[in-house]
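Lecture 7 notes: from sequence to structure.

We start with a single chain of 73 residues. Read the sequence below before looking at the structure.
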Amino acid sequence: MAFANDLSFPDHLIAVTASTNRSKSDSPPNEWRPPRRDSWCRYATAWVTIKVNWSLTATAAERDALGQMLETC
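Now the structure, written as tokens:
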């Protein structure tokens, strides 16, 4: 429950269209990326920050996708 209600990073909550929210669903970065490439850096940075903060693991595919998105920073 603490993870779901974590407000440590309120800037990670980003308003998006309903269709974007539906297309993402619960997909990880290797299965979904923001449709606008100029959002990749912010999205990947937020994802990594949360993973580190909560000591979560990532698959190799997820790390590769995040690395590609972070290259746009």
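The mean pLDDT is 85. Keep this in mind for problem set 3.
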